[in-house]
């Protein structure tokens, strides 16, 4: 009798980029991403150093490894230890009426960093990006940006040290000058290699990355940082945004700017499992900050068991949703 070879299931390749996150049954391979992207692990010594320099306990997202990787974060800490300042930059691509729990992760951590280091913050709303990638009109993209801004404001950032802007309303002047400087340094082959664009993608998608790159340069905001063109920038974000800033860090020295530093988080898993993240495109995958008590019962229908750490993190995030949004916004 001829032996039948056992069937070997092909491992599903993970895809992680700014527009798509998916993996096999084992979930996202974060060690693989660190190697693939070339970032560094956030180690215990760095986390302890944050606590020592700020006089505050490390944020639970650091203690639990939710923020797990970085690029040159220690250089930011070196500057702070010498008495020098830096600024923070994070953002949101508005494609839904409100933020979900996954969106809250970088904003909650950014608030901790702003409070702990007492530094300025710029928040970019990429309403133009969502118009380019989603089936939205310009007016709808701008409306969603305004709705998302309300949720972001409710996180409690220091109003004296925070500047939030939408691309449709702000891009121009010094910001646009930096965009074209970046664009001239990145070839078509380079941007295809980083982001995986195809010949079917329209030209505005291919030219979008400089828009997200230049908020990491203080010269893009002369009304905020006049005479501070070499001020360093720290970007808290999920690791799927890393391709934007690999490109930015490569270009920065060529246009006389400082490389931004990053702290990078894992994904908040979808309710269906760890093979992908919560998505604004799939309401059944996520818990939104505006969900009613009845709507949150979808957890019982769709949620997987994520273990004790996952359950505790969801409870902590839920506790932080008890914020009031001004009806005047």
UniProtKB/TrEMBL annotation:
This is Tryptophan--tRNA ligase, cytoplasmic. GO terms for cellular component: cytoplasm. It is found in: Cytoplasm. GO terms for molecular function: ATP binding; tryptophan-tRNA ligase activity. GO terms for biological process: post-embryonic development; reproductive structure development; tryptophanyl-tRNA aminoacylation. It comes from the Eukaryota. Signal peptide: none annotated. Belongs to the class-I aminoacyl-tRNA synthetase family. Its EC number is 6.1.1.2. Keywords: Aminoacyl-tRNA synthetase, ATP-binding, Cytoplasm, Ligase, Nucleotide-binding, Protein biosynthesis. It is an enzyme of class 6 (ligase). It comes from Aegilops tauschii subsp. strangulata. Pfam families: tRNA-synt_1b (PF00579).
């Amino acid at each position: 009798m001829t032996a039948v070879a056992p069937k070997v299931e092909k491992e599903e390749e993970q895809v992680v980029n700014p527009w798509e996150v998916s993996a096999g049954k084992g979930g996202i391979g974060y060690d693989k991403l660190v190697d693939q992207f070339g970032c560094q692990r956030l180690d215990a010594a760095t986390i302890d150093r944050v606590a020592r320099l700020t006089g505050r306990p490390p944020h639970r997202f650091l203690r639990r490894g939710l923020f797990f990787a970085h690029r040159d974060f220690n250089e930011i800490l070196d500057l702070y230890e010498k008495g020098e300042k830096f600024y923070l930059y994070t953002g949101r691509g508005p494609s839904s009426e409100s933020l979900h729990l996954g969106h809250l992760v970088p904003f909650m951590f950014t608030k901790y960093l702003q409070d702990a280091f007492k530094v300025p913050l710029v928040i970019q709303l990429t309403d133009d990006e969502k118009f380019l990638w989603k089936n939205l009109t310009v007016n709808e993209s701008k409306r969603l940006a305004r709705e998302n801004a309300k949720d972001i404001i409710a996180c409690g950032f220091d109003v004296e040290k925070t500047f939030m802007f939408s691309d449709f309303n702000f891009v121009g002047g010094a910001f646009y000058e930096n965009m074209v400087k970046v664009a001239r340094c990145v070839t078509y082959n380079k941007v295809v290699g980083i982001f995986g664009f195809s010949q079917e993608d329209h030209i505005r998608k291919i030219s979008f990355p400089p828009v997200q790159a230049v908020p990491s340069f203080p010269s893009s905001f002369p009304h905020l940082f006049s005479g501070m063109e070499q001020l360093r920038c720290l970007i808290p974000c999920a690791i799927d945004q890393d391709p934007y800033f690999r490109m930015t860090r490569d270009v920065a020295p060529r246009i006389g700017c400082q490389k931004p530093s990053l702290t990078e988080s894992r994904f908040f898993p979808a309710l269906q499992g760890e093979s992908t993240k919560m998505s604004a495109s799939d309401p059944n995958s996520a818990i939104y900050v505006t969900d009613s008590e009845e709507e949150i019962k979808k957890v019982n229908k769709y949620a997987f068991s994520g273990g004790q750490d996952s359950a505790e993190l969801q409870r902590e995030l839920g506790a932080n949703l008890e914020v009031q949004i001004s009806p005047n916004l």
